[in-house]
Amino acid sequence: MIRDGTVFDDDHLPSTIVGRNRHMNEVTDALAPIQEDVRAENCFLFGPSGVGKTTVAKAAVRELRQEVLEVPYAYVNCWQDYTRNAVLEQISRDLVGAALPRSASTGQLIDRITADLDGPGVVILDEVDQLRENKVLYDLHEIRGISWIGIANREVDLLADLDERVTSRISVAYRVNFDTYGEDAITEILSRRAREGLGPNAVDEDVLRRIARLSEGDARQAIAGLRVAARMASREGLSAIPGRLVEDAVADAEREVRQKTISKLNTHQRALYEVLTEEDGLIQKELYAQYEEAHEDPVTLRSLRENHLPKLEHYNLIDVEWDRGSKRYHLVGVDHTAPTPQS
Ligand SMILES: Nc1ncnc2c1ncn2[C@@H]1O[C@H](COP(=O)(O)OP(=O)(O)OP(=O)(O)O)[C@@H](O)[C@H]1O
Ligand SMILES: [Mg+2]
């Protein structure tokens, strides 16, 4: 039944972007000056998880590269590369193909990119709210030719601790806001994936619609649900996905997506997650105290509150409840009556 499993991979860039024409146009408009060999406008994409931000950014750059041959392009995931040097190293590798020694200083990295970049180039800064040293936005501003697309969940998280020199630059950037998908858009996204990835007649519209409904506007969740349902049906030797598998498949997919997200957490987020695995339902002060014990190089309460806790919430790993003026944190999807799994 599964003809091409890669179309269900998270980093698969689909040939058609469903229901995001306005967003695509706004991003391609921002990039348009590059066609005239001029630096583009920076832009920001904001929105919840699984609404196509990364996909739209990459698809807009793909479109640009179809128009203008060989525009230098870099993709940085700031969740993994969160220091100034890590970002610049990634950009230097992708954009100008220069591998500098690991010991290269910030100045050397900037000089190298500046010297080798000949004309405009584009950088996607994904999960830019996870940057620990956002001065790098200022560095990028100073490098002639570079424009960037920054992706984050909420504008407030991003602007919380930006340097004034940086904010004065980014206040001119385009902002594109994404909302969650409706059921029709998700069903259409699923239907295209099914056509590409599964055998003919492997799934009917009604089943896709049910997966879409259970995925609550999150395309990543929906695609994972379809993949798990196809796998379950294959194991039973079926050539089509029966409706009875949908609920279990979506629940399993939710666990799989969550597990994958947990594996990407940085040490602070992981320590928080582990503290809550030990003792669920802590208020912020208690959570911070235990985190501070558990982490060898703890960040401030403010950084925890403005950066790491919102990230865990955004990826649906924790739930927050207000309890007499305090925020109380719970793990999502963990059965607290059973022994807690170690992750
Ligand atoms: N409009 C779309 N058309 C086709 N596929 C889409 C569309 N939007 C999202 N997808 C698919 O859904 C999945 C999640 O999308 P994407 O990674 O772009 O979400 P995101 O908004 O960046 O989420 P996060 O904030 O969690 O990183 C990807 O596999 C992507 O291919
Ligand atoms: Mg993304």
Short recap of the structure:
This protein has 343 residues and is of the alpha/beta class. Helices cover 49% and strands 12% of the residues. The strands form two sheets. A five-stranded parallel β-sheet has the order 2-3-4-1-5, sandwiched between helices.
Keywords:
globular; alpha/beta; binds magnesium ion; 14 helices; three-stranded antiparallel beta sheet; Helicase, Ruva Protein, domain 3; Arc Repressor Mutant, subunit A; Rossmann fold; binds adenosine-5'-triphosphate; 343 residues
What can you see in these coordinates?
With 343 residues, the protein is of the alpha/beta class. Helix content is 49%, strand content 12%. It folds into three domains: 21-177, Rossmann fold (3-Layer(aba) Sandwich); 183-261, Helicase, Ruva Protein, domain 3 (Orthogonal Bundle), CATH 1.10.8; 265-331, Orthogonal Bundle (Arc Repressor Mutant, subunit A). The chain is built from 14 helices and eight strands. A five-stranded parallel beta sheet has the order 2-3-4-1-5, sandwiched between helices. It is globular. The mean pLDDT is 91. Bound molecules: adenosine-5'-triphosphate and magnesium ion.
Topology overview:
Elements: H1 21-31, E1 43-46, H2 53-67, E2 73-77, H3 84-96, H4 106-116, E3 121-126, H5 135-142, E4 146-152, H6 155-159, H7 164-170, E5 174-177, H8 183-197, H9 205-214, H10 219-235, H11 246-264, H12 267-278, E6 282-283, H13 284-294, H14 301-314, E7 318-323, E8 326-331
Parallel strand pairs: 1-4, 1-5, 2-3, 3-4
Antiparallel strand pairs: 6-8, 7-8
This protein binds adenosine-5'-triphosphate and magnesium ion.
